[in-house]
Amino acid sequence: MDVSLVPADTSEDVRxxxxxxxxxxxxxxxxxxxxxxxATDTLVACAVARELADAYPVRLxxxxxxxxxxxxxxxxxxxxxxxxxxxxxxxxIADSLxxxxxxxxxxxxxxxxxxxxxxxxxxxxxxGERMALFPAAEDWETARQRAGVVTSLLTDMHAGEIETSIxxxxxxxxxxxxxxxxxxxxxxxxxxxxLGMSAYTASGVIGRPSLGSAEKGKELLASLADxxxxxxxxxxxxxxxVSEDERA
Length: 248
Prior knowledge:
alpha/beta, Rossmann fold, 4-stranded parallel β-sheet, about 40% helix, globular, metal-binding, hydrolase, zinc, hydrolase activity, acting on carbon-nitrogen (but not peptide) bonds, in linear amides
């Protein structure tokens, strides 16, 4: 694991900070065409999580680096875990955090195929636990418009303008030549879950990476940090229970 992805906190740092909200980046290890690394989704999730930690009093956790990437199995290098495993890992992390006094968890998802994370949050919230999934599609849309990203979220599905821009900003040394001429569009992907990515792209790319830039990547992250304010407020709100005697 890249040591830059691991927070450098000591136990004393954590105790002194006393943050009640933790941020967990969850990515994947899957093909991203010939120019972005297998760890792209993890790197994106970590870049978003770091941006949040720089702007809010949260506890930044190291990433979950392998997710549910079964639709990419036809490409060498892709590694997946089952949805049951990912569900259990996030639940166990949340339980451990609560035992140590951290009551809320934000799951920063970097991979669209990690569908089960939505279920984890739904189930936890129904039990009265504080958990959120970030960014939402609306947060990405706001960021896309603010950053001047031309490609729609539908078209920019994989290794496209957004992911290329964020890596050009956060990890330019990991972006190989070739993204400038790798654009490929496949907006109708209705059978993706049945057929996998290889039914829609030979290169592994669906999007317009040629339009990516470091400037767009920086603005995307800044916008997401601003959008997180509402999520943070929701998780840190104090719920006041009024007794029957107080109502009278």
